[in-house]
Specification:
Blueprint: H1 10-14, E1 22-27, H2 33-43, E2 45-49, H3 50-58, H4 61-71, H5 84-92, H6 95-121, E3 128-132, E4 147-152, H7 155-165, H8 172-177, H9 183-189, E5 192-195, H10 200-218
Parallel strand pairs: 1-3, 1-4, 2-3, 4-5
Helix pairs in contact: 2-10, 3-6
Length: about 220
Amino acid sequence: MRVEGVRPTAYESNRTGRSKPLVGLAGGVGSGKSSVAQILSELGAGVIDSDELSHQEINHPEVKETLSRWWGPGVLAPDGTIDRRKIGTIVFNDPVQRHKLEALLHPRIAVRRADQIAVYERQPRIKMIVLDSPLLYETDLDLLCDAVIFVDAPIEQRIARSEKTRNWPEGELRRREKLQQPLDMKRARADYTCENNSTLSDLRKQVERIFTQILAESGTL
């Protein structure tokens, strides 16, 4: 169900120049947003991964020079790229430094995002544009979207996935999520919810249904 008054309708957004629905992905760490993004891509969506854009931008020569000046050459890995784990340790323990990094990166990432949206707009095979961003609500990206899909999963499963795939110590997921807006708020503000608590086949059925419904509501089906 659409949350009225939170963001413009697809029709209103299209009047600003877009012809395809722009959809945001939200959910907790380890909820399975990447799996949902992959399914959407297979269905014909163009997915923009904010983590990938951040990775590209943080290794831009100008950004690397700035980060090395702020925090010393120790933030560089042996191959000359930014050691994101070291940067993470700095910013997650210091809100001032985190905001400083965000102020540097977010405007640059926004330019890359806008460029990619324009590319997908020109591709006939792309039926929908998806923003996969861990900070969708924190950075107000949801206000640009015609709809938001919230990917939900039990906390136990999310912790297990994070400890396995990210090698996070116990308690790290909860600590990081305290720095973000509450999941209950994100879930309530989303237009659609995927319950990722069963099989991949079940998740795919939910995503296919939502994909079709969004296209139908936007008039692009």
